[in-house]
Amino acid sequence: MPSAIVLHQAGPAENLIFEPVPVGLPLPGEIRLRHTAIGVNFHDVYVRSGLYQTLALPGVPGIEGVGIVTELGSDVKHLNLGDRVAYIHRGYGAYSEERLLPANAAILVPAGIDDQVVAATLLKGLTAWVLLHEVYAVGPGDWVLVHAATGGVGSLLSQWAAHLGARVIGTVGSDHKMELARRQGCSHVIQYRREDFVARVNEITENEGVQVAYDAVGKDTFMGSLACLAPCGHLANFGQASGPVPPFEVSALFPKSNSLSRPSVFQHLRTTVTLHAAAAALFKALGDRILQPDHITTFDLAQAAQAHRELESRSRQGSVVLTV
Fold this sequence. Notes:
The protein is α/β, with parallel strands linked by helices.
């Protein structure tokens, strides 16, 4: 019987238990998948901790993976046994050796891109695509603020925004990350533990502000990000690594006619057509080396608890992946 990571009760990383889990035969419209690599995301941490109560317990967390198709439902015609596919799926279940998956969630992976790279970049890269093209259409000359610029999404955002001609200001939490942020496309880097990032953004932009701020940090940076916006600028809050954003008065957006979003990649890519178009753009950017993922830290699936601790570590750079 294959095994999976099961969360019986929300709480610390130690609550992620590796145990046998049965996997049945695929129903019509489903495939059975043998995982090779699994992405680890802050979304998983929020689910595990109980901040997000979206996984029925006991349950198998995880929303993205890469693997090989081993069985097909009776009506699945667009895939073949042995196909290498990747997916993001809000129905959870990725922290597993094998699983059933809706066939329409499977994305064929082109040759030449390693499974671990796909697992490290699919959700993060699709998130970056949505943020840069759907939430705010970044163009040449735009000032863009990226918090946690060397993190999983932040590094891809910085590289892709720079390729689109934007002037990227990145924030990082330590001196040794500053040069990495520059290599990943940031034209200016702010060490926010030593500098007031709002004052520095105003200085860098000559008090113009940024057209868009991408903030996955949440509570600690939200009001500062809002203060950094140019007139008619947009703040995209897409994570809460420091905690949820407290309630605030919507009238705070009025003085500079700013706008705010809390985007979900699953909503923006809710149709098969948009999902596959975004994935094609991501795979092309990886193939053309427009996007070059930084360090990928790997753990065996059974070490999911350790992987979560690594993800939550302030010293971490790059992405975390589980291997099977």
